[in-house]
Amino acid sequence: MKLIQTSVWLSSFLSIAAQEACNSTCQAVFKGALAGESASWISKNVTLDEFYSTPANASGAKPGALLRWEFISRADSNTKYTAPAGMSIARFMYMTEDMDRSAIPATAFVLLPYKRPVPGKPLNTLVNPHGTAGFIRNCAPSNHKDLYQEWNGPYALAHAGYAVIAPDYAGQGSDIPQGFMYEAGYLHAADVAYALIAARTALGSLLSEEYVVVGHSEGGMSSWRTNERLAMPGQEALQKAGKFLGSVAIAPALRPLDLMPESVRRANGGPIGGANAIFLLQSLNKLYPKTKFLETYLTKQVRDMLPLLDQGCIGTGSALFANFTSVQTFTNTSWIQHPDAVDWQKRYNGAGPYPLAAPMLVIQGITDPLVYANNTEIDFNRTCAAYPKSKVSLKLYPESDHMVIRQTAQQEYLVWIKERFDHVKVQDGCHMETVQTISNTFRNVAAYYSGSNRP
After folding, report:
1. Superfamily (CATH H level) for 57-254+354-434
2. Does pLDDT of 2 surpass 70?
3. Which end of the chain has the least Cβ crowding within 10 Å, N or C?
4. Whole-prediction pTM
């Protein structure tokens, strides 16, 4: 009850502070979105949850160290989460690394299938970095009853017989001074590798030595960046995660600074859609405090609404800012050329091109309004021009947007993943294909799942 009272008081207080920026209609939309989102949180305030607090054994621990581990009890799994019957959930805290390679804490969850597909053999292992969930610590997928992407992600993977390791990313769940570093692909790659290393400490021979990384949106970018980082020199610590077989990058949000002007151009004075750019500026503001990204580049109305945004996740952000134009959001868009932003995209985001450590499948919806197909093609072509022997395929899906693609392409990428574990040879070189649909009457609206305990 204490957590709920704290949340209600905070919401009421901030509603008064933001009253001019967010009118009564806006407040009603905000409260409805926040209520819906917070109903999905396991902990209403992770800052008061012992699991998400940094334990004493973090001091001196190296990246890859396992700090805390717990299997979710059957009682809690049955009542608090919506994973399909037969699946086991665990969550854990481990050490990953910052840009200077110092150790920082992160959290993750594990999803295990009901049985081993092959008796006596380890489970083929996937790491599943997630798409944009939000900015605050509460938005960690391990804190979500549907584990955030449900059948669009971890449920489908575990149902296919894989062990699924899913990092929350450092700062989303865990407490670090710089906060969650949104779209920081170079660092998310470290979260991927060290989460698997830490999970091996707990699960041992249950996990295969070989692994594949698969993710969507921010997670698609993380999958791509993992493939690149593992090929870089000086990554021996990350390579201890096991034998990397390849990655699947679904609608990868690769270069945010390149996507932003395209969003403004396509909007043509209309809404640019959602809070993603605001999340990025919040992260830049913490990483480069002297530049004052929020004060300089966000309008007063948006700045006054940030306390509302900071109560929720991506759904709340969409409710607050989905109808905002570029002019309503930014004082100007020159921030995308600021030297600190350019430095961020090169170092934190890890924008290449770079060589790949293993084969990669890129999945992209042609009608994606957030990650544009032409931008993904540009990055694909950059990699292929610089490293023509890269084993990478780009599959383009007609009439599939950013969310639909997770469902229309699921059959394709599950087959591709299985082939990697079956050691099917991948042809050298780059290959691009537009998928041919059976008909033009297929459903092209994304469906979402939330389990219930109805008989």
Report:
1. Alpha/Beta hydrolase fold, catalytic domain (3.40.50.1820)
2. no
3. C
4. 0.95
